[in-house]
């Protein structure tokens, strides 16, 4: 997808980026950073895991540890603003989704 440079105030990537293969993730995150105006925001929500990836039926998925996810996104030039686990109100082991909010720098 061709995205305009420094165009958007935010990118909302809910349950999307975990379908990007590991080898393509740095490029995709860099392109998302480039399409944001300076100091604007990226929202991501991905299911957590132990850095597994592969096919499940017709879907490709990557399930990262939070620390691994942070390494990828910070390497793309983002600073973490906030994170939380979903669904709310449950013990952490029953909250498979990690939502993160980032600012491009």
Give your account of this protein's structure.
The chain has 105 residues and is α+β, with helices and mostly antiparallel strands. The protein has a single domain (12-104), classed as Rossmann fold (3-Layer(aba) Sandwich), CATH 3.40.50.150. The protein is 20% helix and 44% strand. It is built from two helices and six strands, in the order E-H-E-E-E-H-E-E. The protein has helices at 25-35, 66-75, and strands at 8-14, 36-47, 52-56, 59-63, 78-86, 97-104. A four-stranded mixed β-sheet has the order 1-2-6-5. The longest helix is centred in the first third of the chain and has 11 residues, at 25-35. The two termini are 22 Å apart.
Return the average pLDDT rounded to an integer: 97
Number of helices: 2
SSE order: EHEEEHEE
How is the CATH topology named? Answer: Rossmann fold
**Which structural category fits the helices and strands?**
alpha+beta
Cα-atom radius of gyration: 14 Å
CATH level 4 superfamily: Vaccinia Virus protein VP39
Largest β sheet strand count, sense and barrel closure: 4 strands, mixed
Give the terminus-to-terminus CA distance. 22 Å
In the residues, how many domains can be counted? Answer: 1
Low-confidence stretches: none
Q: What coarse outline follows from CA principal-axis ratios?
A: globular
CATH architecture: 3-Layer(aba) Sandwich
């Amino acid at each position: 997808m061709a995205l305009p440079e420094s165009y958007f105030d935010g990118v909302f990537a809910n349950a999307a980026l975990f379908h990007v293969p590991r080898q393509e993730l740095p490029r995709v995150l860099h392109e998302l950073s480039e399409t944001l105006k300076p100091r604007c925001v990226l929202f991501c929500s991905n299911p957590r895991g132990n850095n597994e990836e592969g096919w499940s039926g017709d879907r490709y998925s990557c399930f990262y540890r939070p620390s691994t996810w942070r390494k990828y996104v910070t390497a793309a030039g983002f600073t973490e603003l906030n994170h939380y686990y979903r669904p709310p109100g449950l013990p952490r082991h029953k909250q498979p989704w990690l939502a993160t909010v980032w600012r491009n720098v």
